[in-house]
Amino acid sequence: MNKSLNSFTKTVLAAGITGAAAATWATVIERNLFAVRQKEVAVLPSGAAPLRVAHISDLHLAPWQDRKIDWLRQQASLQPDIVVLTGDLTGHKESIEAVRYALKPLIEAAETTVFVHGSNDYYGPVFKNPLKYLKPHTAKKTKKQPDIDNDRLTAMLEDLGALNLNNRSARSHVGEHEIEWLGLGDPHIKLDDTAALEANLKENEISHQRGSALRFGVVHAPYANSLNELTDRGAQLIFAGHTHGGQLRIPGFGALTSNSDLPNAQARGLSVWYTAQNAAFLNVSAGLGTAITAPARFACRPEISLLTLV
Fold first, then answer.
1. Which CATH number describes the domain made up of 33-309?
2. Cβ of 271: how many Cβ atoms within 10 Å?
3. Closest listed residue to residue 215, CA positions, set 301, 309, 288
4. What is the 3 state secondary structure string of 123-156?
5. CA–CA separation, 36 vs 19, rounded Å?
6. Pairwise CA distance, residues 57 & 245, whole Å
7. Taking the model in full, what pTM does it have?
8. Nearest Cα to 306, choosing from 80, 86, 117?
């Protein structure tokens, strides 16, 4: 009997030590191990000069997060041609100036920067039961009052020269390339408005039929309907965030959730999105941060994507 108790005690103790070590790794170490994930994407015409795109998402920045801010400022050395911001930049109602300080060198290093907002660019973080993230996700509007000054955030990004793609389109020239941009508001809280995007496409004389220009889509949360809308409007490459790559991944298995209706296997990195008649590359950034109410990452380092378009 005593031997059985000793064996049980040792098992419980070992499990406790392993759990504590994993929790320490996730909350103290890995969430601060910022990385640059690099990929090549074959979307350019033959013989065209390559483009470097820094895809940045889900900073969830709080004013006191100096390590993240300093690391992000250093990434201007990547010398991207384009910066794509896919939302949830703020993580605290007092973080807008910190976001500006963190992103300014990268935006100034690029020829073009574009952005859309995520839900946390309107609403500050609140505690949620983490088990809810494992349930099927549907988009829904919230009745909460916004506590992030989104107008100020938008004005700040535009003042830095970034193009606002929330239910909008735009054109930019980068080197020898003409790029048509299509963007949607955050589907996670039903701010995606395809009618507004369609009206803006007509205003900018961008047809559904892609011509000689490159065409890229941008959205925060990669819900299927929004990906379909962008793909069927001719996007060759779509940028999204929101998923945090699953945030807590199981090595050898992957993400347990995408926090959307995106298949878990596509919750991080480069893949292909198919509609009935079209297809587009899809890059989902695992993001650089976490909500301050859930400061943990496991087997899912915080990242920015550096895509070389070839």
1. 3.60.21.10
2. 15
3. 309
4. CCCCCCCHHHHHCCCCCCCCCCCCCCCHHHHHHH
5. 28
6. 11
7. 0.93
8. 80
pLDDT in tens, the chain (310 residues): 566 657 766 666 666 777 677 888 788 799 999 999 999 999 999 999 999 999 999 999 999 999 999 999 999 999 999 999 999 999 999 999 999 999 999 999 999 999 999 999 999 887 666 555 656 666 777 778 889 999 999 999 999 999 999 999 999 999 999 999 999 999 999 999 999 999 999 999 998 877 778 999 999 999 999 999 999 999 999 999 999 999 999 999 999 999 999 999 999 999 999 999 999 999 999 999 999 988 899 999 999 999 999 9
Q: Which residue is associated with the tokens 């349930």?
A: 135
Tokens 């909500």: give the residue. 291
Query: Sheet holding 269-274: strands in order across?
Result: 169-174, 177-183, 214-218, 237-240, 279-284, 269-274
| Residue 113, token pair as written in the block | 């920067």
d(CA 82, CA 110): 5
How do the domains of the chain map onto residue ranges?
Answer: 33-309
Question: What is the rounded CA–CA span in Å between residue 222 and residue 240?
Answer: 6
Q: Left (φ > 0), alpha (ψ -120 to 50) or beta: where does 281 sit?
A: beta
Please give the structure tokens belonging to residue 202: 């007509």
